[in-house]
Amino acid sequence: MAAGIAAEVARTRINRYEHGVNECDLRTAKRLADALGMPLAAFFAETDEVAEAIQALAKLSVEEQRKVVVELQLKAQRSDLPSS
Question: What is the pLDDT of residues 6-17, one digit of tens each?
Answer without folding.
Answer: 666 778 888 888
